[in-house]
Write a structure and sequence with these properties.
Helix 3 runs parallel beside helix 17. The longest helix has 37 residues. The chain is an all-alpha fold. The protein is built from 25 helices and two strands. Strands 1-2 form a two-stranded antiparallel sheet. Helices cover 68% and strands 1% of the residues.
Length: 530
């Protein structure tokens, strides 16, 4: 019993859950908040998927869509904060699902979470490569003239490799980087906002920002008033918000490395969502107000639709100012990439620790720095492989007026959103089903869970359906003009993965996978009554 008495409060709680302290618990509560805030990264999602919201619905999809969807996501965050307070383990949502719903629930939740985490790592790294390329192009015309998707892809691979090396070097280094990342995002976003307010000679009206609707998706003949606009096109625009504010489960995955995890990780989840929602909305409104006019003196919706935020910056101000904004964003996106890699590798480590991934012994091993180095490398390799289709250029415009859309990038984004949010849905639903039998931690929602959890489940179910639909008419199977290059392959990856997992479970996994395994001495577990 002397071993039990010598444990810290965090180690005692971890022992109650069946695990010994293997990872280095060197993260503060601020560092835990910082990793989720860095992964949400308003300098990443607000920049890289701005075009998705702008083209699918127009400014209203952003000015109104962002705060409305953010409120629903905050509810999801509150439900997850309660769960991490009760179960602060690196397995996070997989562990919660296993505890409340058994091995099968844990198996499917874990794989959905892992798929989502790897996809979000890939999408953020690719977005970072795109913006780094745009930054260099802004400062060098010769570099800009030699643009190619192959060049962007190689930048993407290099950034993945660099993020991997930093993650492998030291877990404590990642904590420091995330602390720096928070201030980079706060100060950087503030600088961008001030530049967009004071530098452009012209700004759009409040009426434009909060009432302008248009439809560049190709659906419904460009109508902005049809049922298809309201129930198909506009919801596509909400991908901007749903993608940007995700990955906050990182606070759970780093809970075994965080001091006072039951409170700190819970606060890390909901606070990262709340502050990102406010900062992101202000930043996006500044983008919309800075939209330049065309030669006819009207808002240049076509130009921005094809060129995204980079078009706004380069046409509303001098190229050096524009390059500065793009550089601030690219650095922020690299911080986000390293944080995504940390979160994904910790999930891989925890899931492998319980034997769920082929080659588990390899992926659950720790380096001399007590970092899951092999898991980091696995995440990097898979992230690169699933992004290979991004090498294919897709033009949904004409040869005379090209509108290049990174369909493959948006598909990876969709896989990330679907995988992560479906993984969130399972334990949220299970907690609601448990009712008062659930034993909450020090941070909880009280009786409010009864309506919070249901609303969270419904919202996740709805957005998951939208994100597997074709983004453009030419991606609809059996339609006129259908071409495979326009296909949103998110449902192929997601549904295909679920089918494979179901077959694997039925044929093999259910016979040997029993959920989380104890890694602590059995006598210590028994001392806690487990």
């Amino acid at each position: 019993m002397s071993d039990v008495r010598s444990l810290s409060d965090d180690e005692r709680r971890l022992a109650e859950l069946g695990y010994k302290q293997e990872l280095n618990r060197s993260w503060s509560g601020f560092s835990n908040f910082a990793i989720s805030f860095s992964i949400i990264s308003i300098l990443a999602g607000c920049f890289t998927t701005f075009g998705q919201g702008f083209n699918n619905g127009g400014p209203v999809a952003i000015s109104w869509g962002w705060p409305i969807v953010s409120a629903f996501i905050l509810l999801i965050g509150f439900t997850m904060s309660e769960l991490v307070s009760a179960y602060p383990t690196s397995g996070g949502i997989y562990w919660w699902a296993s505890k409340m719903g058994g091995a099968r629930a844990g198996f499917f939740t874990g794989w959905l979470n892992l798929i989502g985490l790897i996809a979000v790592t890939a999408s953020v790294a690719y977005g970072c490569a795109t913006f780094l390329d745009l930054t260099l192009s802004t400062f060098s015309k010769g570099y800009a003239d030699s643009y190619s998707l192959t060049r962007v892809f190689w930048l993407f691979v290099i950034l993945l490799a660099l993020a991997s090396v930093l993650n492998i070097f030291s877990g404590h280094l990642m904590a420091i980087m995330n602390n720096v990342s928070v201030w980079w995002h706060v100060v950087g976003a503030t600088i961008v906002i001030l530049m967009l307010i004071f530098i452009p000679d012209h700004h759009q009206s409040f009426s434009y920002v909060f009432t302008e609707r248009f439809n560049n998706s190709g659906y419904s003949g460009g109508s902005n008033s049809s049922l298809k606009y309201w129930f198909l096109v506009l919801p596509f625009g909400l991908l901007l918000t749903q993608y940007t504010i995700t990955g906050f489960d990182a606070s759970a995955h780093l809970s075994e490395e965080t001091a006072s995890a039951s409170k700190a990780a819970a606060k890390g989840i909901w606070q990262s969502i709340f502050y990102s929602a406010i900062g992101g909305w202000i930043l996006l409104l500044c983008f919309l107000f800075a939209v330049p006019d065309n030669d006819k003196g009207l808002p240049d919706n076509a130009g921005v639709g094809g060129g995204g935020v980079a078009y706004i910056f380069t046409h509303a101000m001098d190229s050096k100012w524009a390059g500065t904004i793009l550089l601030i964003s690219a650095v922020g996106q690299f911080f986000c990439t390293t944080s995504c890699m940390t979160s994904a590798s910790r999930m891989t480590f925890a899931f492998s620790r319980d034997g769920a991934i082929p080659g588990s012994r390899l992926w659950s091993s720790l380096s001399g720095a007590r970092v899951p180095a092999n898991a980091v490398m696995l995440v990097a390799v898979v992230a690169a492989l699933i992004t290979l289709p991004a090498l294919k250029e897709v033009n949904i415009g004409t040869d005379e007026s090209p509108l290049i859309v990174p369909v493959a990038f948006y598909a990876v984004v969709s896989v990330a959103v679907i995988g992560l949010y479906l993984a969130f849905l399972i334990p949220i639903w299970l907690r609601w089903r448990m009712g008062d039998a659930f034993q909450p931690g020090s941070w909880n929602n009280g009786a409010k869970y009864k309506w919070m959890n249901i609303i969270a489940v419904i919202e996740i179910a709805i957005i998951s359906i939208y994100f597997i639909l074709p983004f453009v008419p030419a991606g609809v199977p059996f339609s006129d003009g259908f071409d495979w290059k326009f296909v949103n392959y998110a449902p192929i990856l997601t549904i295909g993965s679920l089918v494979i997992l179901w077959i694997w479970w039925q044929v093999s996994a259910r016979h040997w996978f029993k959920g989380p395994k104890h890694t602590i001495d059995q006598a210590v577990v028994e001392a806690f009554g487990e």
